[in-house]
Amino acid sequence: MKLNLNIFTLFTSVLLILSPLIFSNEFSPEESRRILFRVDKLVSYEGMDFSGEYTITDFRPGQGTSRTKTTMFRRDSEDTFTIIIMEPISDKGKGYLRREDKMWLYDPVPRRFTVISARDRFQSSNVRNSDFTKSTLAEDYRIVGHTMGQLGSYQTDIYDLEAVTDNVSFPKMKIWIDQNNLVRKFEDYSLSGRHMRTTAIPLYTRVAESYVPSQIVIQDELRGKEVNGSFEHQRTIISVEKASFMKLPDMVFTRAYIERVSR
Amino acid sequence: MISLIFTAKRNFFRNKKRYRVLLMALVVITAVLTIVLGVVLGMRIALYEKASRYFAGNIVVMGYRGNGSSLIENPEEVVQSILHLETSDIPVLGYSRRSTYYDFNNIELFFSGYYIKQRRMVGVEWDLERPFLNGFNFIEGSVPLAGDEDSVLISSTTADQLQIAVGDELIVSIRSDRGHINTAGLIVSGIFSESSFFGYQTYVHRYTLNRLREAPLDRVNEIGVYLRNPLSNEAEAAQQLTLELENTLPVFSVMETRDDYANQARKKRDNLEYGVVGVSAQLEEIRDLIQAITIITGVVIFMFLGIVMVGVGNTFTMIVWERTREIGTLRALGMQRIRIILSFLIESVFLGFTGVILGMLLGIGVLEIIRNFASFPPNMVSTLFLTQGRLYWLLPPWGILLIIALVAGASILGSLQASLRAGRLSPVEALRRGK
């Protein structure tokens, strides 16, 4: 009996000592980077060019809906993209160019480029200019928590992320990753922990070895209006069509190109 | 001389029917002068006080390194220098220690789905600035209690846009100095009516703003000084404070113009250097606007005074003509030319002073009615010049003396030619020509 008690005491002590390691949600930096890199890799197109037609529909409760149609050209290996606005007519010809850390907006009326921030809103929608860049979760965030959960029909890993760089707008995030390592949902939080934005990606299109999000729904958690007794959030839906990984001429990622196509 | 004054007084009251119209004109012109001067000076004070509240004080200490924004690394030394101002005979009402955040794109306020952008967020110490922040025209609520880090003061325009009231929780979102979005839930403590001329702004506790910015909690960006007589000694105080600062800190100069202020902020420096700027330098454009208004008003008033002078001149010509026989008799009895001239001039002085007294009473009455009963639509221009929603007036002693000098001067100058002509009349000719 005495021996049994000692074994029990020893076992409990070991369990107590190791419990933080066994039940912890903490991830080592390497583990964190490995998981997030796997996620980034599926939606980043290193070594190839990407182009597609983006339709951005903005719903403003009580104000109506606006639609922006754009053509996007992206080259992740050079961290650059070009966006040309096709619709609405009033904004037709406007162009966005990102090269490394710099970003410009071209307005065809005064025929002028102005420097803008990647953190600014795209055409006053809930989308930020940085949302069009390649996914860099592994570089910008580390995992600080993990749970499992069901998201619709998907069994997902839910990770709590914290920014490790100052390059991101939202210092805290929560992401839902399905069994195929695709991000199905993420929530953006302010530094103080306020929920600012929710993004859902219900549809992906597989093109070659990569995945292209073909529908993205972004909900602003702070903006909205009470309509017929219930609160409706401002929402933006992005639909991606005609996705292609065909090689693009270098010229596409220049200011001269934007000026030419905007004429 | 006393007999002359009595004669002039008697003649003035005898001819009061003839003077009636002229007196009315003088009363009106004096009232207009009183109203215009009182309103312009009152507007100037209101604008100056608003600007002082906006810019942290009547004179403000800035610390520049060359990146365009101010930082005070030695707040204790700066405050000591401000306290030393008292020993230089510059009375100080108080001082402010603020952190400030300018970024039109990244200051947002949210309430129940509504949102608005702000140009500027100011971090203050409620108790330190209470006497000056109480100068706001509060539509609802008041300045929060000392040390309250969870309260916010917003403008009425912001409150209308957000449909928020005192006691509601507002969400403030800014981009921190590290580029992260940061938020805080703050309770609206007061809603003030303020002009949008300087841009919409929100007041929070200094620690709250620093926490939102991910900056050290005790960071100070500007230290301002509220003076007892700012309009008369702002420049002197700025100069004196610069000298005081020089004793302990590296100082560049007093920034006397808006351009100087902008240039100093951008000028590259190896180390942090301090400078002092007065509100007047920040208000250069508005000062020009007020000067332009004053000049236009001055021209109109001088035109009126010219008309009054012509009126006085004509009336006195008539009076002299009517009293030619009387002048002849007085001259025949031995009255000197100079006494004839003086008797008419003293009459005009009576006329002028009666007009000034009645006109000032009328003007001050109108100013009081405007102050107590006139309401103005809350737009950018009117709110800029109002104090607590009212159009206050100010008439300092020099203003009163100026009005007296102008109106009485116009009356005397107007009558001068006719008086001289009366003095030149010979007794024989006057007795023959007179009625």
Write structural notes for this entry.
- Chain A has 263 residues and is an alpha+beta fold.
- Chain A has one domain (29-261): Lipoprotein localisation LolA/LolB/LppX (outer membrane lipoprotein receptor (LolB), chain A, Clam).
- In chain A, 18% of the residues lie in helices and 48% in strands.
- Chain A is built from four helices and 13 strands.
- In chain A, strands 6-5-4-3-2-1-13-12-11-10-9-8-7 form a 13-stranded antiparallel β-sheet, sandwiched between helices.
- In chain A, strand 10 (183-189) and strand 11 (195-207) form a beta hairpin.
- The radius of gyration of chain A is 22 Å and the shape is globular.
- The N and C termini of chain A lie far apart (91 Å).
- Chain B is elongated and about 100 Å long.
- Chain B starts with a helix and ends with a helix.
- The model of chain B has no long low-confidence stretch (mean pLDDT 86).
- In chain B, strands 1, 2, 3, 4, 5, 6, 7, 8, 9, 10, 11, 12 and 13 form a 13-stranded mixed β-sheet that branches.
- Chain B has helices at 2-14, 16-54, 75-84, 126-133, 156-162, 206-212, 230-246, 258-266, 279-282, 284-322, 324-332, 337-373, 380-384, 397-424, 427-433, and strands spanning 59-64, 92-102, 107-111, 114-117, 120-124, 137-141, 151-155, 169-175, 181-193, 201-205, 222-227, 251-255, 273-278.
- With 435 residues, chain B is of the alpha+beta class.
- Chains A and B meet through strand 12 of A and strand 8 and strand 9 of B.
Brief synopsis:
The complex is a heterodimer of chains A (263) and B (435). Chain A is of the alpha+beta class and 263 residues long. Helix content of chain A is 18%, strand content 48%.
Summarize the helices and strands and which ones pair or pack.
The complex is a heterodimer of chains A (263) and B (435).
Chain A: H1 2-23, H2 29-43, E1 49-60, E2 64-75, E3 80-87, E4 95-99, E5 102-107, E6 112-115, H3 137-140, E7 141-151, E8 154-163, E9 172-177, E10 183-189, E11 195-207, E12 210-227, E13 230-244, H4 255-261
Antiparallel strand pairs in A: 1-2, 1-13, 2-3, 3-4, 4-5, 5-6, 7-8, 8-9, 9-10, 10-11, 11-12, 12-13
Chain B: H1 2-14, H2 16-54, E1 59-64, H3 75-84, E2 92-102, E3 107-111, E4 114-117, E5 120-124, H4 126-133, E6 137-141, E7 151-155, H5 156-162, E8 169-175, E9 181-193, E10 201-205, H6 206-212, E11 222-227, H7 230-246, E12 251-255, H8 258-266, E13 273-278, H9 279-282, H10 284-322, H11 324-332, H12 337-373, H13 380-384, H14 397-424, H15 427-433
Parallel strand pairs in B: 5-10, 7-9, 12-13
Antiparallel strand pairs in B: 1-11, 1-13, 2-5, 2-11, 3-4, 3-8, 6-9, 7-10, 8-9
Helix pairs in contact in B: 1-12, 2-10, 2-12, 2-14, 10-14, 11-15, 12-14
